[in-house]
Amino acid sequence: MTKRRFSQQAVSDWMKGDGPESDIVISSRIRIARNLRHKPFPMLATNDQLVEVMEQLTEVANSGKLKPIGKFETIVLSELNELERRVLVEKHLISPNLANESRGGAVILSDNESVSIMINEEDHLRIQCLYPGFQIKEAWKHANRIDDVFEDETDYAFDEKKGYLTSCPTNVGTGIRASVMMHLPALVLTQQINRILSAVTQVGLAVRGLYGEGSEALGNLFQISNQITLGQSETEIIDNLHGVAKQIIEHEKAARSRLMSESRLRIEDRVKRSYGILSYAAVIDSKESAQRLSDVRLGVDLGLLDDVSPQIMNELIVMTQPGFLQQAFNEKMSAEQRDYRRAELIRKQLRSQTEHGGA
């Protein structure tokens, strides 16, 4: 297999696994930001300096030091075309910043794509670990092991009072962003979501959409993450997020139970209407497809739909993004053509699910 498999396959291997509370928590993510001492941060560095940083960090990755953790491959972004970079963004393997600014940019990926190490994004080094379900503490342990390897082999920019130094002041300190991606359709349907999310922001956490800061919460998917990186230890940050996420999980479960006891027929009708539209629509835009997929996933989790995999939403949310659609059909598309191809791809995937009994 070539390195381009990372941009050719829609679904990362880690997404196929089940994790704790996976009916509500889609994934858990840790991202660690680091910079090298005595090197200009990426926004101020010259091309030559960025290349030096890339060579130094990829040398660590290729030295065998990461071997006990897993198998990794390095991809230099200048070797990818615009569409391939876009697909990596849609799969959450690189950030839009790194895709758009590829000077000295690279990404080191684990075989199952659960680990993504970005080089010369906003910071010299960004280590990302993704786990299925509610496994934020496990993701932190994994990311911390990788961070230790790079810290042993390089000299990080660190201040005794401030902690790790980063390009953005909001990351100074631990340099950690911990987040959980949660599917909260019942809280939306019972109109509790605004109250819950307001309470979340009051305890120092941020709420974003599927693709992070500035993105819309399509398909009832909400990313809950820490805002504070300075003045708290790594353990305090992880424990705070874990505790709040656990409460949100309980609220979502209670809301689902309420829907089933008070409005079962209405919910079943909604779920099956969405399944029917996805199964037969000739044209569908990204916003509607995300909402319909959310309904179907809720139906699967509540036992209202048979022969559909619970991972269907995870997979199709990625597969129906503009970049992957154009790559899958090997053609450049207008918005209208994407809506047609999106509907075609969804119909095909749902038909395959039915034929294989949700496998």
Biggest sheet: strand arrangement:
2-3-4-5-1-8-10-9
Which consecutive residue ranges, at least 5 long each, have pLDDT under 50? none
Principal-axes shape call = globular
H and E string? HEHEHHEEEHEEEHHEEHHHHHH
Task: Give the C-alpha Rg.
Answer: 21 Å
- Main beta sheet strand tally, sense and closure: 8 strands, antiparallel
Determine the fraction of residues in helical runs and give it as a percent range.
Answer: 40-55%
Portion in strands: 15-25%
Number of helices: 13
What structural class do you assign from the helix and strand content?
alpha+beta
Q: In angstroms, what separates the terminal alpha carbons?
A: 24 Å
Number of strands: 10
Provide mean pLDDT, rounded. 89
Oligomer: single chain
Relevant terms:
two-stranded antiparallel ribbon; globular; 359 residues; alpha+beta; single chain; 8-stranded antiparallel sheet; ATP-guanido_PTrfase_cat; Protein-arginine kinase; Arg_Kinase
How would you describe this structure to a colleague?
- It is an enzyme of class 2 (transferase).
- It holds the Pfam family ATP-gua_Ptrans.
- Its EC number is 2.7.14.1.
- With 359 residues, this protein is an alpha+beta fold.
- It is 46% helix and 15% strand.
- The protein contains 13 helices and 10 strands.
- The protein has an 8-stranded antiparallel sheet, covered by helices on one side. A two-stranded antiparallel sheet has the order 6-7.
